[in-house]
Amino acid sequence: MHPLLTRAAGVGTGLLLCVAPLATTSAAAAPNSAAAATASALAPAAQTAPRPTLSAKATAKSARAWQEFRVYGASTRLKAGTRVTLQQLQRKGWVSLPIHMNTTRSHTYNLRVKLGIKGNNKIRIVGGGAVSNTVQIAIR
User: Fold this and answer.
1) Torsion over CA of 39, 42, 47 and 53, rounded to 10 degrees?
2) Phi/psi at 87 (nearest 5 deg)?
3) Is the CB of residue 122 less than 8 Å from the CB of residue 82?
């Protein structure tokens, strides 16, 4: 008998429940064990959790400087009320702009955007660990 089991048997069943996983580790090594089948079924599910996603679309392909347009989209696998932020590609790096909102109960968002940097601008939405596709807007 295992030395921990002999000590636990004298103390009570509460401690015996804590020691029970030690006794099943040798049973988990057996391939025909029910405990081994349960453990192997749970392991892949914990490793492959689905990632959250965001989509982004704009109401215009081009606009004048400081003219308002909208960026809208939907999220999947994000809680309602998750904050999403607009980012703009500036000098080869993504910069968060002070344009943000929380997703609605239907997991959508709709942002009012005004950009002043002339030329082709690339923007995206980030939030909750998700990054949207890149949207290109020409500002003239």
Assistant:
1) 180
2) -120, 145
3) no
